[in-house]
Structures are given as C-alpha cells and as structure tokens.
Amino acid sequence: MKQDVVPVQIRGILPANSGCALFLGNDEKVFVINVEPQMGQVIGMFLRDTPKERPLTHDLINRVFQGFGITVERVVITDLKSSTYFARLILQQQNEVARKIVELDARPSDCLALAAAQKKPIFVSAALFEQVEDMSEVLDKMNESGGEAETD
Q: Is the pTM of this model over 0.90?
C-alpha cells in the first residue's frame, strides 16, 4: 500500500438534528464527516452487527457482490471540496483465472457503510488528513460525559 494514505477507523457516531456526525480517525487525530441521519444508523448497525428484519440497500449490494465474487478491498476518503468529502471504493473480484481491481467514485457514507458491513479497512489521503480539523477532544468529552456517541 502506498504511504500517501493514513489508516483510520470509525471512532464514534453522534446523531444530530440535521444529520449524523461520523468521527473517523486514529490515535493521532480524529475528524468528522456529516452524513444523513439514516446513513449514520445504517453504519452503526453494521458496526454492531445488528440483525435486520429485511435487507437494507447496503445488504443487497453486499449480496450482489457475493454472487459475483466481489469483495470490498478498502475505502479511501480522498478529498474535501466546498464542504463535501469525496471517496473511492476499491473492489476486488477474484476467480480461477484472474484478479481484477476496480476503483469507483462513491459517497463516503456509502463507502463507510460497505466497509463496516464487510469489516474492511478505511483510509484517508495523507494530504486530507493533514488538512482536517482535529476533533479528538470533542470525541473524548462526549465519551467522558456519557454522550450519545456510539464508539467502535
């Protein structure tokens, strides 16, 4: 793996009025990506392995992937432009003849849901990681005060 990416994990989820804050980071730094409320719930369900009555959209995508022998290789949060994060979903398809890697542009929330569902690694570009505001103290305070943050 190239050294221009930094491994991160989902460190917490905080529901809010207008969305949901996903805290991503490592021991060095934590940053926030805001997602739609239902996406925060879905990602939390995948992190906790919560059983669902009916398959959700990301469950369906995972089943289609399984049917075609495709796995999520990794997710990379790549950029931030005009307050919008960008991500790449790296997929692998392996059969008896060859291994194929496909890289797709995707919303970070979808990438994070699929990574959480398949327990796959999440990375952020080193340049972006350097640029984002460190929210470690906010996450620590929420955890200390018993806030609503769900942590991994």
A: no
